[in-house]
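Example: Amino acid permease-associated protein.
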Amino acid sequence: METKNQANSLSRSLKSRHIQMIAIGGAIGTGLFLGSGSAIHTSGPSIILSYLIVGIFCFLLMRGIGELLLSDTSKHSFLDFVKMYLGDRWEFVTGWTYWFCWISLAMADLTATGIYIKYWFPTVPQWIPPLVILLCLFGANMVNVGLFGEMESWFSMIKVVAIILLVVVGFGLAIFHVNVDGSTASFTQLVSHGGFFPKGAHGFLMSFQMVVFAFVGIEMVGLTAGETDDPEANLPKAINSLPIRIGLFYVGSMIAVMSVYPWDQITTTASPFVQVFSGIGIVGAAGILNFVVLTAAVSATNSCLFSTSRTMYALSMGGNASSFLTKLGRNGVPNIALNFSTAFLLIIVVLNYFIPAGVFSLVSSVSTINFVVVWVVLLIVHIKYRRVHPKGTKIFKMPGYPLTDYVTLLFFVFILGFLLVNKSTRVAMIISLISIGSMLVIYQLSVHRGKAK
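Written out as structure tokens, the predicted fold is:
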């Protein structure tokens, strides 16, 4: 039998190193490993500046979320603050939007695992790896949150090691002007092939949509507040290390890649990481990177199971989902919510036979847009919080408030506006707007009426 305490309290089993690595993992996705080639082709070296700009605003976003969470550590996640300052309606919309964000990304990543496994085992049916990986991750998440933290730590470590190797190797080649595939590595490569902005303002602006995609999931640390053993110490540490991670992982890796190869010689059919490692003669570079991107996809799915189950738990606690979803196991894990998210993801195993890759590309775009919408909502919540509590928290104030809040908010609204007018993302933006509008209608017709009774 569960005790009353067990039935109502999430486990606080995440240690400092778990929170650090979850935050790191949230800032590194397959977009950096696989999508950076296309991003470089679109904007040239100016993508370095894009990563820096988006990284700064994501850091400010996380400082705002951090201040919210530390203002009341009894809250389970940032959704509790959405409810407190914007009401039930926006908790419902934000929570279910966030749940859909992660579910759609995990569906795409699970499908990708089948493709990655085929690199080594080409005869394995594509539906088998997603099924096996999903069931393994489900079992691990059912055990306890500490095991989730441990797994995510190792997944993140693999990604971090790959990036650090790229940066060290790339900078070393550039400093010593080593000849790689007929081209001399040098930092001057960043400006000697059409300048820093070879694709002009349009190419620079186009890069933002790809860069923002690389950062989605960075806010997931905001869902760990209810399961962290010492949130007052661990959350600020994880958030304050963001600038270092952004500088090393994104800015550093892009400088390294484009210093080794001129940006217009970087392939778009494979990862720039493979091109750099292969160019200097590392045997099996493609296989090594395939393992890295496989772990990145598994990590994304692992994060999905954690974030969606906790989101549903928070929605249920707030009365915006069935109360049945608040049920916790002996280990403090929201088992029913975890079961529901896992069962939903099993759909992708079946759909792998029928849905073409283009649909997943569209779903991922919609998911990315919805992530930005969630970020905008959280910034508005922080502004409302500071209006109610002008002094903020004592230990973790948002730097530069209120200017930083409004500038960050305007930046992400600008990104949404650009995605709406841009032809390649307009359909995804319209779908996102329709989905959010539909959730508002659903709330009005069902949840609101149910509460009124």
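The chain has one domain: 12-306+358-417.
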